[in-house]
Design a protein that fits this description.
Distance between the termini: 29 Å
Structural class: mainly beta
Order of helices and strands: HHEEEEEEEEEEEEEHE
Strand order of the largest sheet: 2-3-4-5-7-8-9-10-11-12-13-14
Shape: globular
Number of strands: 14
CATH class of the largest domain: Mainly Beta
Helix content: 10-25%
CATH superfamily of the largest domain: monomeric porin ompg
């Protein structure tokens, strides 16, 4: 912008000598320098997931993220199962950034052989300057299909019984380069529930955050609280804690959680692990980014 003003002034000085003074040039440059700038917040989190739950981050436009997720067995299974490492639940997923606001994803989990797909759209971006917005807000909608064979073949099941849905509003604020906090109200609908007294619609309030320990390592934690009062005692609220390691080429996440599933209806409403009894799953996520355009 300044270079354009300087070129304009030189042009006018050459063709209209005497009509332009030095003070006029200074005024124009100072006016341009005082022009307010817009500062958008970036890297609220290192990756698109805090641990199990979604973050407000999206892949960059044209980037394809390949995510490999593992949850091993429970730590309290003892030495015979090598403290859970002999068992594993796996999810493979792809996330693609369509533009600077929208991302889409598909994935498949070994837990109940579940296929999933979702859309995430950034409604607001945290920014300061001409316009001040204190938070980043994203909307998430996902659909899930469980392809596992029915345990009771004599019952009249349909494809509709296999489908569930999840919707979330992701609200995050980056307070500093070292601290970010996110709130996640969520609604999960399951067409088929496990127990007769379980509702088909579940409402959950989640909270998560990350704290930078170094330039390349963060401490992450998240908690999902079920708001439904009518619920089976076999399920628990989900708590997870872990670390993110940014190695440049990919982000590596190590964590501990009481949730075995790695898709939203699973870890939001079907968490069977109890931290107090040692039902803790060690897991990791590996993210690799491919630039397609």
């Amino acid at each position: 912008m300044k270079s354009r003003y300087i070129l304009l002034v030189l042009f006018m000085a050459f063709f209209m000598p005497g009509k332009l003074d030095a003070q006029g040039l200074l005024d124009m440059l100072e006016e341009d320098a005082e022009e307010p700038q817009q500062d958008f917040t970036t890297n609220t989190f290192l990756t698109t997931r805090i641990i199990n739950g979604q973050s407000v981050e999206n892949p960059f436009p044209g980037d394809l993220i390949f995510i490999i997720s593992h949850h091993f067995g429970r730590l309290n299974q003892g030495a015979y199962d090598f403290w859970g490492l002999d068992q594993a639940t796996i999810r493979l997923g792809f996330e693609y950034g369509i533009n600077d606001r929208m991302a889409v994803s598909i994935g498949r989990s070994s837990y109940e052989k579940t296929y999933d797909g979702f859309v995430k759209y950034k409604l607001l971006r945290q920014q300061s300057g001409i316009k001040n917005i204190p938070v980043t807000v994203s909307w998430f909608s996902g659909a899930y299909i469980r392809s596992q064979r029915w345990a009771f073949s004599d019952r009249d099941y349909t494809f509709t019984h296999r489908v569930s849905y999840a919707h979330q509003l992701l609200i995050a604020r980056k307070f500093s380069r070292n601290l970010s906090i996110q709130l996640t109200p969520a609604w999960v609908h399951r067409n088929l529930v496990e127990f007769r007294d379980d509702p088909n619609d579940f409402f959950v309030l989640g909270a998560g955050g990350r704290m930078a320990l170094t330039n390349w390592v963060t401490l992450n934690a998240e908690y999902f609280y079920r708001l439904n009062t009518q619920y089976s005692e076999d399920f628990f609220n989900t708590f997870s804690v872990g670390f993110d390691f940014d190695t440049g080429g990919h982000v590596f996440q190590l964590h501990f959680t009481n949730a075995q599933p790695m898709f939203e209806p699973g870890f939001l409403t079907e968490t069977r692990g109890n931290w107090l009894e040692g039902d803790i799953y060690f897991g990791f996520n590996i993210k690799r980014v491919f630039t397609l355009r």
